[in-house]
Amino acid sequence: MTENPQNSFLALPPSGRGPGILVLHAWWGLNDFVKEFCRRLAEAGYVALAPDLFQGKIAATVVEAEQLVSTADNQRIAADLFAAAERLRGLPGVTDEALGVIGFSFGAYWALWFSAQPSAAIRAVTVFYGTGHDEFAQSQAAYLGHFAESDPFEPAASVAELEEMLRRANRPVTFHTYAGTGHWFFESDRPEAYQPQAARLAWERTLAFLKEQFPV
Q1: Treating both helix axes as pointing N-terminal to C-terminal, what angle do 74-90 and 106-115 enclose, rounded to 10 degrees?
Q2: Which CB contacts under 8 angstroms, 24+ apart, belong to 139-142?
Q3: In degrees rounded to 5, what are phi and psi of residue 167?
Q4: CA-to-CA distance for 187 and 175, rounded, in angstroms?
Q5: Other CB atoms closer than 10 Å to residue 200's CB: what's the count?
Q6: Which of 42, 117, 128, 131 lies 20 to 30 A from 168 at CA?
């Protein structure tokens, strides 16, 4: 593992102003891929903030990532999410009280959890190959999901269960499954899993979804 001295990463659009989006990293930690993803969001007109949920630790291997998850303090992570949302809303360039949240795998679980907290004021949630099973009755968000066709971490039954839970809560939800992909297919720094064509389509769908919820 390596150490990241930053406790978050912030990317601003060229104008310095835009809707706020929280980006929640996968179990690898706040790595260069996540930072680049924030920069891409900023180029599209959004203020993107990625909190470091592992407090500076970054995993290079699955074994290291599993260790990070197994030793994570969930209460601290929950508190960190509320603190990150407060910081993001407080930035002078953020133009909307409501926020979006995007999560990858481990981060997707937390994105779903956070969206279910009424005080979080989340309007839009995008998850990449990650599920969660919270009560969404108090959520005010719309949901977009990107899932792999072959994924031992998130089987199709878990994805279908999450979709049904969101629909029962009367939340707008659109889930996509990408043929020929596995877990981490969006992450360009995972050459064993990265699928450029699927990643490009997922990015285009994510931007279209965000623009529906937060016009820029």
Answers
A1: 70
A2: 139/115, 139/169, 139/171, 140/98, 141/115, 141/171, 142/171, 142/172, 142/173, 142/209, 142/212, 142/213
A3: -65, -40
A4: 18
A5: 11
A6: 128
**What predicted TM-score, i.e. pTM, was given to this entire model?**
0.95
Distances (CA, A) of 65 to 36, 98, 106, 148: 20, 31, 10, 20
Q: What are the beta bridge partners of residue 50?
A: 9
Q: Which of 206, 125, 199, 216 minimizes the C-alpha distance to 165?
A: 125
Would you call 55 helix, strand, or coil by DSSP?
A: coil
pLDDT tens digits, one per residue of 142-191: 999 999 999 999 999 999 999 999 999 999 999 999 999 999 999 999 99
Widest CA span in the chain: 43
Cα–Cα nearest to 112, from 96, 93, 126: 126
pLDDT digits (tens, 9 = 90+) for 81-122: 999 999 999 999 999 889 999 999 999 999 999 999 989 999
Long-range CB contact pairs, 163-166, < 8 A, 24+: 165/133, 165/136, 166/136
Helix, strand, coil fractions of the chain, as percent rounded to 5: 40, 20, 40
CA dihedral 72→169→117→11, nearest 10 degrees, is: 80
CA distance 170 to 168: 5
Q: Nearest Cα to 17, choosing from 92, 103, 112? A: 92
